[in-house]
Write a structure and sequence with these properties.
β2 (34-41), α2 and β3 (59-64) form a beta-alpha-beta unit. This protein has helices at residues 17-32, 47-53, 67-77, 84-89, 92-105, 137-144, 152-170, 182-185, 228-249, 263-267, 284-288, 305-312, 321-324, 341-353, 355-372, 375-386, and strands at residues 2-7, 34-41, 59-64, 109-113, 129-134, 176-179, 197-198, 217-222, 254-257, 274-278, 290-295, 317-319, 336-337. The chain folds into 2 domains: 2-202 and 375-386, Rossmann fold (3-Layer(aba) Sandwich); 217-372, Rossmann fold, CATH 3.40.50.2000. A 7-stranded parallel sheet has the order 3-2-1-4-5-6-7, sandwiched between helices. Strands 10-9-8-11-12-13 form a 6-stranded parallel sheet, sandwiched between helices. With 389 residues, the protein is an alpha/beta fold.
Length: 389
């Protein structure tokens, strides 16, 4: 099959969730299909990243978006009903290039990740199209409103309303649809939302496996530390969960690892026992040097890749329902899930006290990963979805 893939970012390096999902899907798809990858970029393309993608993808094109045009379209977006992020990523010159790519490549199928890209291909009717919502963006924005200040709270509220409408309207332009979890599918307000195929993320379990390194930290939390849900999670961990744990156990060592830490995250390192690393070359070191993974996610949406990676590394995972409910009942049986800070802290205390329990949970939860969350299996679901039309 000749497959045209449209992304809003170059899917490498893997510091963001959408990049990780697209990258691993592309690696598998390119083994069986002729893939034309088209990426939008709001920054100067990373030539090394593009060169890496070309080692396994037949054709890679990057369209650099004009900063001036982004600003203009965002201003015009104030007088529109489309989501601001759709305005951000749409430019007429880019549309012309994509139309030329399509006319030349003549794809058998188009795969579009995230609704922010859909304006470019929604009116292309020469082949079937699949839209990967990935997660319910409208719900993710809505959850952030309460903790935001003006004018950000107004922007989030407005964007959430626009996203809710757009997620519904764009559905009918695509023959097939995928999303990361059932809880996200239920938040897409379209009468045929049950037709959306759940294609979860996977994890490279051969790569993410423990080396049984000496434990330096008691608790670890990872992710893109400039992403608001992760910023919120890191602050909650250090300022709310950690004091309760220390009241019972004394001083604990917390590692916050991930790229581009926001100022609020960097400031957490001022507390004794907290280390904020920023980007690290091998995130496995962060997992392997720690005893318990804690992700107190209070805002956001989708399946948390960080949880899959931690569990694959045989770390017991303590998290909230917002992250945990993306898993089925069977899959989350070895996760410790609560929306009460006190309960989260109690679970951490229990796991830090009981080494044998940590090891037991870590081993059993990795078995769930091996059975349900390998990329080959999830991409098979994606391919079956594409074949529906």
């Amino acid at each position: 099959m000749k497959l045209f893939v449209l992304l809003s970012r170059v899917p490498y390096p893997l510091e963001k969730g959408d990049k990780l999902r697209a990258y691993h899907q592309l690696r598998s798809l390119a083994k069986k299909h002729e893939v034309f990858l088209c990426c939008l970029s709001d920054e100067t393309p990373n030539e090394a990243a593009i060169a890496h993608l070309r080692t396994f993808i037949q054709k890679v094109e990057v369209i650099q978006l004009s900063k001036w045009s982004i600003g203009t379209r965002l201003f015009l977006g104030l007088f529109s009903q489309r989501p601001f992020q759709v305005h951000y990523f749409f430019q007429r010159k880019a549309l012309g290039k994509i139309e030329r790519f399509l006319n030349h490549f003549q794809p058998d199928h188009i795969y579009c990740q995230l609704i922010r890209c859909t304006e470019y291909v929604k009116n292309y009717h020469h082949c079937p199209k699949t839209l990967d919502y990935m997660d319910a963006l409208s719900a993710g924005h809505r959850r952030r409103i309460a903790s935001a200040r003006f004018p950000m709270n107004w922007l989030l509220r407005e964007e959430s309303k626009r996203l809710t409408t757009y997620e519904n309207l764009i559905f009918d332009y695509f023959e097939n649809h995928t999303i990361i979890s059932q809880q996200d599918r239920d938040l897409i307000y379209h009468e045929k939302r049950q037709q959306i195929t759940i294609v979860p993320n996977g994890v490279d379990s051969d790569f993410f496996q423990t080396k049984n390194t000496e434990k330096v930290y008691d608790i670890v939390f990872t992710g893109n530390m400039n992403y608001p849900p992760n910023v919120s999670g890191a602050i909650t961990l250090v300022k709310e969960v950690m004091p309760m744990v220390e009241k019972s156990l004394g001083k604990v060592r917390v590692l916050i690892a991930g790229s581009s830490p926001a100022p609020e995250v960097k400031a957490l390192a001022e507390k004794e026992g907290v280390t904020v690393t920023g980007w690290i070359d091998d995130i496995r070191d962060a997992y392997d040097q720690s005893k318990v993974f804690v992700a107190p996610m209070l805002i956001g949406s989708g399946m948390q890749n960080k949880i899959l990676e931690a569990v694959s590394m045989q770390l017991p995972c303590v998290t909230t329902s917002l992250a945990g409910n993306a898993f089925t009942k069977e899959q989350k049986q070895y996760l410790f899930i609560s929306d009460q800070i006190q309960t989260l802290a109690q679970d951490v205390i229990m796991l830090l006290k009981d080494e044998s329990k940590r090891k037991e949970v870590g081993h059993q939860s990795r078995e769930i990963i091996l059975e349900h969350f390998n990329w080959e299996a999830t991409v098979e679901l994606l391919e079956l979805t594409m074949q529906k039309a």
